[in-house]
Every structure is written in C-alpha cells, then in structure tokens.
Amino acid sequence: MLITRASEYAILSLILLSSAKEPMDSETLSRELSISKSFLAKILQSLAKVGILQSFKGVNGGFALSKEPKDISMLEVMSSVEGKAPAVFECAPSEENCPSDRANICSIWPFLNKLQGKIDSFLADLTLADLIDE
C-alpha cells in the first residue's frame, strides 16, 4: 500500500507544523488532527530521527520543521515513517530479489517496476511546499 495511515498522519502533521510560529507538542497536534497521541508520537519521533523535524524538550517543547518545506520530499517523509520506501506493489525492485524467484518469466514485472520508478520519482520531486501551496 502506497499511502498508509502513518504516512497520511505524517504529512498532515508537517502541513500543520509548517504554519506554526513555535514548536507544537504531540498532544496539541493529536488534538488538532484528531489522531491517537501515542501513534502520532511514534510518527513524530521517526521524522525527528531522520532530521525532518527538530524536537525540543521542556515546558515549551514540542516539534518544529528542521528544514524548509521546499527541502522536504514526500518520498523522504513516507520512507521515514514506514521504515522503507513506499511500494505500490508487493513486487521486488529487481529480478534478483523476487520472492517467488519467477521474475524472469513474469510478464508484468517490467511494467510494475517501471511504474514504481515513476511513482518514486514523482514522490521525490513532490515537496511539502507543493502541498502547502495547493
């Protein structure tokens, strides 16, 4: 599945944080977005771990973007919260990694692989700034 709930919540959080004047804590974000606080906290930590968000501790702590929205690709966001690159199909990215060892006779693998490449390219080019501007 390409866009999971984790990816969706990550993107929604980043959109909200992009307009925030100061860091927002996970409780405020979860309330604003009507998302489970514990689930959102894990997502925010994943985004902080890869440097998309900056985490601040203390009374006025929370999360803030650590990059400009134009420098945050959706491929980076989705990969960080999913723990792997988003995939449309349960198909291996190369013939050598095919789980069924049948890629060499699979008639649709070349098509699926090419389509996945186009989706990856699109997500790499799509930034948070693009989502905010639309």
From TrEMBL:
Query: Any idea which GO molecular function terms this record carries?
Result: DNA-binding transcription factor activity
Q: What is the protein name given in its UniProt record?
A: Rrf2 family transcriptional regulator
**Could you name the domain of life of the organism this protein comes from?**
Bacteria
Q: Which Pfam families match?
A: Rrf2 (PF02082)
Give GO cellular component annotations, separated by semicolons: cytosol
**The organism of origin for this protein:** Sulfurimonas aquatica
